[in-house]
Amino acid sequence: MDIISRVMDLKTSLKQTRLKGKTIALVPTMGYLHDGHLALMRQAKMDHDLVVVSIFVNPLQFGPQEDYQVYPRDLNRDAELAAAAGVDILFTPLVGEMYPRGHQNMLTFVDVHALGERLCGVSRPDHFRGVATVVAKLFHIVEPDGAYFGQKDAQQVIVIERMVEDLNINVKVVAVPTVREADGLALSSRNIYLSSAERQAAQLLYKSLDLAKEKLGAGERDAAVIVSEMRRILAVEPLIKIDYISVSDPADLAEQKIIKKTALVALAAQIGRTRLIDNMIWRESAGVNSGADQFAG
Amino acid sequence: MDIISRVMDLKTSLKQTRLKGKTIALVPTMGYLHDGHLALMRQAKMDHDLVVVSIFVNPLQFGPQEDYQVYPRDLNRDAELAAAAGVDILFTPLVGEMYPRGHQNMLTFVDVHALGERLCGVSRPDHFRGVATVVAKLFHIVEPDGAYFGQKDAQQVIVIERMVEDLNINVKVVAVPTVREADGLALSSRNIYLSSAERQAAQLLYKSLDLAKEKLGAGERDAAVIVSEMRRILAVEPLIKIDYISVSDPADLAEQKIIKKTALVALAAQIGRTRLIDNMIWRESAGVNSGADQFAG
What we know:
2 copies of one chain form a homodimer.
Chain A: E1 2-4, H1 7-19, E2 24-29, H2 35-47, E3 50-55, H3 75-84, E4 89-91, H4 95-98, E5 108-112, H5 120-123, H6 127-142, E6 146-150, H7 154-166, E7 172-176, H8 196-217, H9 223-235, E8 240-248, E9 262-271, E10 274-283, E11 287-289
Parallel strand pairs in A: 1-4, 2-3, 2-6, 3-4, 6-7
Antiparallel strand pairs in A: 8-9, 9-10, 10-11
Helix pairs in contact in A: 6-7, 8-9
């Protein structure tokens, strides 16, 4: 596995790859890799000849009060995990390589309006603009055939898919199912922040999604009923502060009152000082796909 | 010359071009071609193996009160002119091809903040967002090595250059000097709107820029003095209503009070119901480049 930190070096290397007729996959991450990321890499390797994993904690997608400075980083460990997963190139740019004028001096942003303002966008107003912008940059640098994202970050997947469609970007976006701990907790680099009591409490997030699935399976279609049942489960645990629970149309994230054929049940909660998200997509008859933290800064 | 109206057909054709190792230039236009556009095409043909000219009157860059519906269109004449200029492919998508969900349902926009809000951005608030977004789409569809824009639309050039830099887009942006009538009037598809009295009046726009050049050549560095001399020339003609006269830094369009080494002197004026723009870039010692209407919807 090559570790490359310069944009120009990466482009030179990938030009050779392309000349040989090989296909390229990109897995954008913020590092501190876990099994969710590794699932993305393995899927990317199955589908393509060469896999590039980017590790970049993108300042543009963090709010001023958020955890940009303390976001966990361990490049040596990440490099070992990526190499073992079959990754060909680890792209590890410094901030000055991605934002040569400084990220504060970026003037150009890609914004997926409406989609970026709902759900997590309410408490993180510039987050998805930062995500869409850095992902557009990475797409232009790598020019991948396929790009892999974790379903845990459902809203991110929907924003990126719509950006690719609206801007005619030549890449296939692939969403990979969420990888979970034995008790259901979705893997996230931020789980490292949790104390043992908080970690214990955090399993209720999945339990509440599981209850929503059960209710939907039993025929319940009133979103308010489902949300209130989920709140009831989470209310048991004083360590959990709900940011939102949302039942929306996975196509455009519009809230649904009466659930039709498909629904994204998504939630965000503060557990201590850690903000976690999780979700499941429910489809009539087809059942449930529950969605790997990777890029959700 | 091939005329292609489908995105998929254009991509298929260009894939073959690229496999042969040929380079590709893109000249984005809104059609109703004039000598300014043709200068772009000839320059593109000198620099590259294959030239694609797009003709697309982009609804996204027109304000609600602007001339989108009546913007002049003549595809047959345009096709003859482009073929004679050596163009290889004329790309003529319908609106539904560029915006399959309808342009009103676009959620993703590329916005070059600050740069898009100055000069013409004041009276045309969403214009440069519409331009940057459609140019990003065309760049993704064509994947050109070089893209050619007229210096007449100075602000557009600066917005596109900055977008390409900020988003790591793989294209060389080339600005081509403005082509003018014998009396100095910059060529523009909108000149067709002018009555003969208005056409007569319109020559003063260039005269005022010429005076600014003279003053700068004589050592004047106070922007307010230059602007007031320009206003004095234009005030003679009651048919002219000035929108703005601006002396700015061509790097970031920030207004300059005391002119340093380089300045963009730019103006917009309403002549009857027609809005025209023009500009010149002045550089100390190096003299003046005066800047082809092409894409300035």
